[in-house]
Amino acid sequence: MKRKVISAVAWAISSCLFLWIFSLAQDKGLSSHPGYGEVFESFILFSFMLLGGGACYHFLTEIVISPLDSNNIHLWTMLTKKMTALMIVLLSEPLIILLSRDYLPTSIAWLVSYFYLLFGLSLSFWLGIRMESIFKSIRYDKPIQMIINVPDNRGE
């Protein structure tokens, strides 16, 4: 049970860290009318924040409702490795954006940022699909009603 709680808390903290760092990547206080590039960039960053936040919430609820016992401890180890890799990808995306903006010329910074965002998005989807299959394997033997202790009243 401790491993499950530690996984849930670590995922929640790292998710908040991801959303906080990603919010730093957005431009603050546009004083003039934003151009098309700024509007598009703002939309892309907001979309990644929204998708990342939704994924973080989804996997946190999966962690909470998935059982942990001696039969599936190896699956939890695999899941922890995948969660760590996903968080590294999610946390590196806004950092690459911030660093490329500060240290590269604008035209190169745009290219680096967008190609890394596309790479990060596709890698995140791939890791998320792998994590989802591990969650299904963890819950394979137990119906969801037994996991969350809700009586099944369908037959009455």
Short description:
With 156 residues, this protein is an all-alpha fold.
Task: Summarize the structure in words.
The protein has 156 residues and is mostly helical. It contains five helices and no strands. Residues 143-148 have low confidence and may be disordered. It is elongated, with a radius of gyration of 19 Å. The protein has one domain (2-26, 40-143). Helix content is 78%, strand content 0%. Helix 3 runs antiparallel to helix 4.
Shape: elongated
Distance between the termini: 33 Å
Provide the structure class.
mainly alpha
Question: In percent terms, what proportion of residues is strand?
Answer: under 5%
Order of helices and strands: HHHHH
The pLDDT mean sits at 75
**Low-confidence runs:** 143-148
The rounded Rg comes to: 19 Å
Blueprint of the fold:
Elements: H1 2-24, H2 36-65, H3 73-103, H4 106-138, H5 144-147
Features:
0% strand; 5 helices; mainly alpha; 156 residues
